[in-house]
Amino acid sequence: MTVKKIIQTLFVLLIPISQIIFNTSCNSDVKSEQNESSAISYNKYFKNFNITILLDLSDRISNRKNPGQYKKDIVFVNNVLDAFKSYLKSKGVVQSEDRIKIIFYPYSNYEIYQQIADSLNINFSEYGFPERKKLFEEISSIYNRQLNNLYAFASNAKSYPGSDLFNYFKHRVTDDCIIADSSFINLLVILTDGYLYDVNSKYQQGNRFSFLIPEANHIQIFRKMNNWEEVFEKNDYGIINLSNDLSDLYVLVGEFNPASNSPKDFDILKKYWSGWLESQNVKKDHYKILKTDLNTLNRNVVFSFFNKIISQ
């Protein structure tokens, strides 16, 4: 074979090889672009939680009045934490810019309260990627240690002025609980027995009130009525309307605990609270009100509520 023919033969053989190399390179680039696109989509899909946990530190947690209630509160917070951590794990902790904090209202003059609240105000975006993973691993122990310190002090207090949840919603809820950014899911968790009371916050406008206490007439009158809901709605009973727009807020209320001699109070309190939340534009499927119950039962509801939020 002449030199010319040898060169021609090699040229013919090399063409398909070069095409294979070129095609392989192109496919690799396409796959790389596809993976990058999927990663972007993945990141956009997972939003960040902005969770505020509001503790009712009224006499409901008094060791003298309700021994053991503070332990139920801590268990409930742990259920919220576990659901939150499950979500963080599913999206990858290093991508987390989520926030979670503990608050109470009115703010106490006790310095220990403020120190504990500060230590439980956590913003993952303030930490580098390695630190976020470490924080994720330690957050439950941090919360449990500090909550035990808080309740050890609060449950043995000499006096309880009340937990002014009405004025919290009137003055603070929007600023504290809502980040006006579509990449965040705003969730307010309230631990309360369902009754509203503060020594300086007793107002009435017609059949609407700023307070709900067991001995209040606007609760007592419904206890023996079979058609109480009809009477409630016909006469426009409720909690005083506020001008809040909480349409971007999810609300989970736990540990409703009606007076033991008035078990019907749970339904009455739930009626008041539901109307109040909806009057502030909290959507019907954006809130859940739970009675104090077995941990296993409420834990399942908490996880279901988180899953519902994520899927919307």
From TrEMBL:
Q: Which InterPro entries match?
A: VWF_A
Q: What is this protein called?
A: VWFA domain-containing protein
Q: Which organism is it from?
A: Ignavibacterium album (strain DSM 19864 / JCM 16511 / NBRC 101810 / Mat9-16)
Q: Which residues belong to any copy of the VWFA domain?
A: 50-309
